[in-house]
Amino acid sequence: MPDDNTVDPLGRFHRWFGQRARATDYAVRETPLGALDGWRVDRSTGDIVHRTGRFYTVEGLRVTALDGTERSWSQPIIRQPEIGILGLLVKEFDGVPHLLMQAKMEPGNINTLQLSPTVQATHSNYTRVHQGNPVPYVEYFTVPGRGRPLADALQSEQGSWFLGKRNRNIIVETTEEVPLLDGFHWLSLAELDALLRLDNVVNMDSRSVLAAYPAPPRAAVADEDSFRGALARSAAAPADRTDLLSRFTAAKAARSLTRERVPLNDLPGWHDDSGRVVREDGRYFAILGVDVEAADREVPRWSQPLLAPVGRGVIALLTRRVDGVLHLLLRARTEAGTFDVAELGPTVQCVPENYQEPEASQPPFLDYVLSLPQDQVRFDAVHSEEGGRFYHAENRYLVVEADDDFPLELPDGYLWATLRDMTELVRHSHYLNVEARCLLACLNTLR
Amino acid sequence: MPDDNTVDPLGRFHRWFGQRARATDYAVRETPLGALDGWRVDRSTGDIVHRTGRFYTVEGLRVTALDGTERSWSQPIIRQPEIGILGLLVKEFDGVPHLLMQAKMEPGNINTLQLSPTVQATHSNYTRVHQGNPVPYVEYFTVPGRGRPLADALQSEQGSWFLGKRNRNIIVETTEEVPLLDGFHWLSLAELDALLRLDNVVNMDSRSVLAAYPAPPRAAVADEDSFRGALARSAAAPADRTDLLSRFTAAKAARSLTRERVPLNDLPGWHDDSGRVVREDGRYFAILGVDVEAADREVPRWSQPLLAPVGRGVIALLTRRVDGVLHLLLRARTEAGTFDVAELGPTVQCVPENYQEPEASQPPFLDYVLSLPQDQVRFDAVHSEEGGRFYHAENRYLVVEADDDFPLELPDGYLWATLRDMTELVRHSHYLNVEARCLLACLNTLR
Fold first, then answer.
1. Searching chain A, which residue's CA lies closest to the CA of residue B124?
2. Which segments of chain B have a pLDDT < 70?
3. Most exposed among A294, B20, B280, B347, judged by the fewest C-beta atoms under 10 Å?
4. A427–B243 C-beta distance less than 8 A
5. What end-to-end distance do the CA atoms of chain B give, in Å?
């Protein structure tokens, strides 16, 4: 049972997490893609595939997107068609729901360990195709009736980097006795809220699932003339979202996304640079290989390709009070790997390094968001994207409150939503992209 | 303005519809696929394509579906990637909402005319790629703010016959004066309910959109110990459907659907028979060509391929009262063209002719549904599927009430839902397949 954290909030967690970090003996070394153990570069296409044909592949993709303007480009992309599980187990201790989190090392993490959900497993992994040890706690998510589902939907991941990848995001509440295994820790929502405000502690998978956690209402602050009050009123906004759904449907119906697989070794603008696949102008990302040694993982030594973005991104949600109710500015986004034409993303989602050439037009609202005074910045932390596929991929997550004269009428593809809208949409697949879901988890810490 | 129909219910409609039918001068003649004007059979693949590359194509598909068992098969399929509009315009007359319906001839209709929604248009059609006349009333659905959306989602069509096809299903209410054009007619929901009980009057597109019409509550019957009372209680059932969503997500995560395009002229089990593509054992469907002459269409003469099923299908919804609340039995279905692995279909959806060989196992619950006494059959009418793509494709739509001892525990892939669940799910894409949506429109006539 978790101890009482009122005296030393999170003290027990930090001691445990620090001890786990010290005990985690690992090393990650970059290796040329052609020399990765267990992987091969396909001779004719240049695609990077595991010798078993499993796990994932890095391929070339030619994309034509019609989303306002017609854009065409080619890029490497990760294909991983299997649907994995991101599962969060919940149990009440002394009337307070606690979530079972795991300290997990991933080779792409900028720091060794981050907090992952109870279960973070690929399909081959949890169905034990490889006859490894069973994934701990997976039965709570795969055996019907083992607990009470609080949320359960297939959700997409980074559309710029993954081709149509989804994971099952599931939260299950149990009343059973749950054995606490090594490497796992129960945390209350308040504790997780505090950890989400720290840089690079709560990993992407955790943030994605947490976004769907049915947050308890905070009626007490609903009368406050404060950001928190406006957020509480946003959570209690009218349930009818037909107009929002209609705008999103219109955006999807007006767009198209055509994709064609092309050889990775023949991608215009990309080439091999000493065993990395990079863009000639240095923008976007590189594909690189790593050799990993980790004493506490089931497989102590392995190699894999990773995608390394060129810089730290900005993922920002612009909010504005309208008649005292906080409104959140979302943007319909069509990316190379988007599962179904478009999903709703944050107001701003970009890596500023990609727009530094003099002639490059800046993403809308990027400058505005970054120029707001500190007292209008409601959330500001750096978080990492999935360290099992991405190398040192960090984003600055921002929730900002715009001035009262920020325009309500917006360019095509932008939509205002309430917190209630987002909370309802995240219950279904393919409305909110992973960046918007991760921001929703951050936004919920402000309630 | 519609007249008062209390004295002569639907009299005015039938006079108008009969007059339209008599005025519709048309002829449909079967023609070998290789001789269709404007179309060509691709020399190497046998695929049937329009010479402009537009409209739709008939291709071969090899499918492997893992949905309980692993099944593999090959079949022809219609590919039509553009998203069209099925739009229903609503306006109140004397406080009663009326829907603007169109009498429309389609070459595959078993009878000349059926009622289509206000707008039934492909994307090329309504964006006027072909520089034809504008589609009447389309501006209500494409110009934002022109009316108030009541429902708006991309919805799939027949997964066994179409590869990932969707249309935007949209209902818009207007308070403007609406000019009544030739071939259009305002009908109240009560009138449409009456017409849905007739065979082959309300076409598939109308039924699909009508399913999303927010039906007014019928609190008055909620206390009745009747089917209608149980249905009213089902419409007012609790709003929490996390468990239902979780079961559906589990079904999708456990399934997979792999598709590969293969040449139509090299499909195992299928061959060309005098200008038709048919299966050697005569099952499922044929692809055939027709020449059409129609005096009142914008293009007076054209040719096209159509898909002709081998027999009349059964689309049945089994219902059961549980503690006085009507429960509806849905089945997760994975079909060749399903957009995303699985959608929820009716309890039974099949063409019995396909299961007549002695060794063929019957679809579950087909015999049960057909064997129930007449007083447990709540809805029974024959409706057609889209006559613009399917030739004489009829289904018997049934809503039946099972005995009180019908098992609540069911095989994998079956789910109980309330009417409130279905009404909520139909607001989103890819939960209810077109057969389930059409049945929902039929079920709503019983409220």
1. A254
2. 1-9, 128-132, 296-297, 358-360
3. B280
4. no
5. 26
What integer is the mean pLDDT of A322-346?
Answer: 97
Q: What is the pLDDT of residue A24?
A: 85
Q: At A198, which amino acid appears?
A: L
Residues 418-437 of chain A with CB under 8 A from chain B are 427-430
Query: Span A266-286, mean pLDDT?
Result: 96
> What's the CA gap between A31 and A26, in Å, rounded?
16
B interface test, pick of A246, A416, A430 with most B CB neighbours within 10 Å: A246
- Cβ atoms within 10 Å, residue B22: 10
Token pair 């919940």: residue: A90
Chain A residue numbers with beta carbons less than 8 Å from the beta carbon of B81 are: 256
pLDDT surpassing 60 at residue A421: yes
B83 contacts chain A (CB < 8 A): yes
Neighbouring-strand partners of residue A293: A27, A301
A297: exposed, middle or buried (Cβ count in 10 Å: 0-12, 13-18, 19+): middle
A8 pLDDT exceeds 70?
A: no
Q: How many CB pairs under 8 A join A and B?
A: 71
Question: 């039509």: which residue's tokens?
Answer: B80
pLDDT (tens digit per residue) in A80-117: 999 999 999 999 999 999 999 999 999 999 998 999 99
Structural tokens at position A172:
């299950």
**Is pTM beyond 0.80 here?**
yes
Q: How far apart are CA B373 and CA B365, in angstroms?
A: 15
Q: Which of B148, B151, B249 sits opposite A152 (nearest CB)?
A: B249
Interchain CB contact of B175 with A (< 8 Å): no
Contact B243 A149 (CB under 8 A): yes
Distance CA B132, CA A377 (A): 53
B145 Cβ contact partners less than 8 Å away, ≥ 6 residues apart:
none
Three-state SS letters, B31-47:
ECHHHCCCEEECCCCCC
Q: Compute the mean pLDDT over every residue in chain A, rounded to the nearest whole number.
A: 93
Distance CA B245, CA A154 (A): 10
Q: How many residues does chain A have?
A: 447
* Nearest-angstrom CA–CA distance, A159 and B69: 31
Q: Judge whether B252 is closer than 8 Å to chain A, CB to CB.
A: yes
Put simply, the chain B residues between 352 and 411 with a CB less than 8 A from any chain A CB are: none
Q: CA-CA distance, A116 to A205, in Å (whole number)?
A: 6
* CA–CA dist B57, B47 (Å, integer): 7
A260/chain B closest Cα distance in angstroms = 14
Q: Which residues contact A130 (CB under 8 A, 6 or more apart)?
A: A124
Residue A154, Cβ density class (10 Å: 0-12 exposed, 13-18 middle, ≥19 buried):
buried
Q: A264 vs chain B: nearest CA distance in angstroms?
A: 21
Query: What pLDDT score was predicted for residue A7?
Result: 52
CB of A247 less than 8 A from some CB of B: yes
CATH superfamily of B219-256+310-444: EvaA sugar 2,3-dehydratase subunit (3.90.79.40)
Answer whether A279's CB lies under 8 Å from A270's CB: yes
Q: Do B242 and A150 touch (CB under 8 A)?
A: yes
What confidence score (pLDDT) does residue A219 get? 72
Give the mean model confidence (pLDDT) for residues A21-37: 93
pLDDT score at B39: 97
Which H or E element spans position B371? helix B366-371
CA A184/CA A180 separation, integer angstroms: 7
pLDDT of B356 reads 80
Write down the residue that tokens 């929901």 correspond to.
B189
Which of A117-121, A212-216, A359-363, B39-43 shows the lowest mean pLDDT across its residues? A359-363
- Please count the other Cβ atoms lying within 10 Å of the Cβ belonging to residue B68: 14
Percent of chain A residues topping a pLDDT of 90: 85
